[in-house]
Design brief:
2 strands, 2 helices, two-stranded antiparallel sheet, mainly alpha
Length: about 90
C-alpha cells in the first residue's frame, strides 16, 4: 500500500526538478539574465511546495483514519463516519 504514494512522490519530485531546469534553460536561451528571476522564483516556490507535500506523503503521515464501528476509511478530522454515521472519537 505504501508503494503507490512512494512512486507518485518520486514522480512529483522528478517533474519539479525537470520543470525548474526547463524554465531556467529557456530563459537563458532567450538571452535573459536578471529577468530570469521572475520566471524561476514562482516555479521554485511551487516546486518546494510540491516536493514538501510529496515527502510528507512518502513518510506516511498523511493517511485516512479507520472508523471504529464499521472499519470504513474516513478523514482523521471527520466528526462522524460517512459510512455508518457513528461519531468519531
Amino acid at each position: 500500500m505504501v508503494e503507490g504514494p512512494r512512486r507518485l512522490s518520486t514522480a512529483a519530485i522528478a517533474l519539479v526538478i525537470l520543470g525548474i531546469a526547463m524554465v531556467v534553460s529557456i530563459a537563458f536561451a532567450a538571452g535573459e539574465d536578471v529577468a530570469v528571476l521572475f520566471y524561476v522564483a514562482p516555479v521554485v516556490f511551487l516546486g518546494v511546495v510540491v516536493v514538501a507535500a510529496a515527502l510528507k506523503m512518502r513518510s506516511g503521515s498523511v493517511r485516512p483514519a479507520e472508523c471504529e464501528s464499521c472499519g470504513g476509511l474516513i478523514s482523521p478530522n471527520a466528526p462522524y463516519c460517512k459510512h455508518c454515521g457513528a461519531p468519531v472519537g
